[in-house]
Amino acid sequence: MSTPTSTSTPEFLTSALLPVPHGFATRTGGVSEGPYASLNLGFSVGDERSRVEENHRRLAQAAGAKLGALCRVSQVHGDRVLEARGEADDALRPTLGEADGLWTEGEGSWVAVGTADCVPVLLVDPQGRRVAAVHSGWKGTDLEISARAVEALGARGSRPERLLAAVGPCIQACCYEVSPELGDRFRARFGPDVVREGVKPHLDLPRAVKASLVKAGLKPEHVDVLQACTACERERFFSHRRDAGLTGRHLNFVLHRF
Ligand SMILES: [Zn+2]
Predict the structure, then answer these.
(1) Which residues pair with 250 in a beta bridge?
(2) Could you say which of 131, 225, 231, 245 is the most buried, measured as most Cβ atoms within 10 Å of its Cβ?
(3) Under CATH, which number does the domain 12-255 receive?
(4) Run of H or E including 111
């Protein structure tokens, strides 16, 4: 099969807080078409496999990393966090298994999670030299998977007060209408600020994630919450809710390169 071509390169958002290469990929710079245009990095959403593979190659090149060093998990909206270590070649490896968070202390390895509305969280321990990526939808946020990732790093010696976190593009409160029951549940767990009341309650997921991280020991000023809303910005992001499920996936990655 011939490799599809396009001239643009992957674009991603970054946080000034993180001292290592990382990114929250946008739609720009891939070869997928239709609802997956263009940088779809999800293999299980109905897109052509050869295009998704080419998109991964482009991402690795833009990230300045080896494709074989990319570590991913099969995401299941749980709270399991796995240790990962990549290889120093250019062959994309299968996922590590079912989990929603992963971390590494392997030099040159990079860890990533896929999203299309859910909250991507990247964690860096500059002293202990560990990095982590977390996928936190409403279920994962309810399970406080970000805190589980902080604990996993802590078990290897990372001190929570030294961790740096970036909370990436996701569906924001403007677009995330939820049931009154879910609103009540989150208000009880994370405080009144995580729900905006209107005709229907709207959930502020990144705020809940930040509350989880601070409760786990991170300093509030060490948590950078990006303001981009995946559902608002059709040109820039995939959105599962806006596109009624027929859409691509972003990858959100952080490299172990100190
Ligand atoms: Zn929005």
Answers:
(1) 115
(2) 131
(3) 3.60.140.10
(4) strand 110-115
Distance 85 CA to ligand 1 centre (A): 35
Distance, CA 233 to ligand 1 centroid (Å)? 7
Sorting pLDDT into bands at 50, 70 and 90, what band is 7? Answer: low
Taken as a whole, the chain contains a residue count of: 258
| Protein residues with C-beta less than 5 angstroms from the ion ligand 1 | 172, 174-175, 229, 231-232
Q: Which residues of 106-144 are buried (b: 16+ CB within 10 A; e: fewer)?
A: bebbbbbbbbbbbbbbbbbbeebebbbbbbbbbebbbbb
How remote is the CA of residue 241 from the centroid of ligand 1, in Å? 11
At residue 154, the 3 state secondary structure works out as helix
C-alpha to C-alpha distances, 75 to 118, 122, 221, nearest whole angstrom: 11, 16, 29
Task: Evaluate whether 153 touches 163 at the Cβ level (below 8 Å).
Answer: yes
* Residues contacting 234, CB < 8 A, separation 6+: 242
Other residues' Cβ atoms within 10 Å of the Cβ of residue 98: 12
**18 Cα to the center of ligand 1, angstroms:** 25
